[in-house]
Design goal:
The chain is mainly α. The chain is 79% helix and 0% strand. The protein is built from ten helices and no strands. α1 packs parallel to α6, α2 runs parallel beside α9 and α4 packs antiparallel against α5.
Length: 261
């Protein structure tokens, strides 16, 4: 199922349109049954409280998006550290051929993990995930025989490191699935629509309100755009860049001197 929050620009455009229509609806209600002067003070109190609640909910949603973004960044760093540690621990295996195979598989695995972070094409992502699963099976199959042949604490470090590599991918995937719930978005939209209706209802007699009624929809929609952009791992402009994995991939390249021996 396609998550509409993966398209922040669409969220912005729809928000502007819906909130503007809500304000126009409030103006239409005001024309039918205008706000009496003696009720203006109470109305302003209700409007201020509602706008304050909207601001609090927007701030809370922004905090949720930031925490999830930071979580994705932290797991990218942890994943790079786990792969790099296992790449070094491959020397602990008694079989030199198995160690060389594991290093080769880890280099390929790192490249695929970088693609996981950077690709936006769903078909390409499906291929990457399938290849990652295959590489994980090959990596585990390469380290298990060494552990069976010599079950000692030194070899156990290499096995434990491989286990960390596999676990880190699962933690990363879980962090990418951890999004702001749709129910929270619906609550946020409902409060924003109510605020817009109230603003329209109270601005009927305000001179120059034609320009002013655009301020709230645009500002709130920009806030929605920013929240959706940060919360979307692939759809937004603000995304987690695999800097640690890129640095790791560069450090794992075989040196020219090693190939000449």
């Amino acid at each position: 199922m396609i998550n509409p929050m993966n398209f922040p620009t669409l969220v912005f455009l729809v928000s502007v349109l819906v909130l503007w229509l809500s304000i126009r609806g409030g103006i239409a209600i005001s024309k039918r049954r205008g706000l009496e002067d003696e009720a203006r003070e109470d109305f302003n109190l209700v409007l201020s409280a509602t706008l304050t609640l909207l601001g609090l909910i927007i701030g809370f949603s922004f905090s949720m998006a930031i925490s999830r973004y930071d979580q994705r960044k932290n797991y990218e760093e942890a994943e790079a550290n786990a792969i790099g540690t296992e790449y070094v621990r491959a020397d602990l295996l008694p079989n030199a051929d198995a160690a060389a195979k594991i290093r080769s598989l880890l280099r390929t695995y790192t490249d695929e993990r970088i693609l996981f972070y950077t690709t936006r094409d769903p078909s390409e992502l499906e291929r990457v995930n399938a290849h990652i699963a295959q590489l994980q099976n090959e990596l585990w199959a390469a380290v298990v025989p060494a552990a069976d042949a010599q079950p000692n604490p030194v070899v156990a470090l290499a096995v434990a490191g491989m286990n960390d590599v596999l676990n880190s991918q699962g933690y990363t995937q879980a962090a990418w699935w951890n999004r702001i719930p749709i129910a929270a978005w619906c609550l946020l939209a409902a409060i924003a629509i109510c605020c817009s209706v109230l603003v329209g209802y109270g601005s009927h007699r305000v001179k120059g309100s034609g320009i002013l009624i655009l301020v709230l929809p645009v500002i709130v929609s920009i806030a929605f755009l920013l929240i959706a952009d940060i919360d979307s791992p692939r759809g937004g402009l603000i995304r987690v860049k695999p800097q640690n994995l890129h640095a790791l991939a560069q450090s794992m390249l075989p040196s020219p001197q090693a190939g000449n021996h």
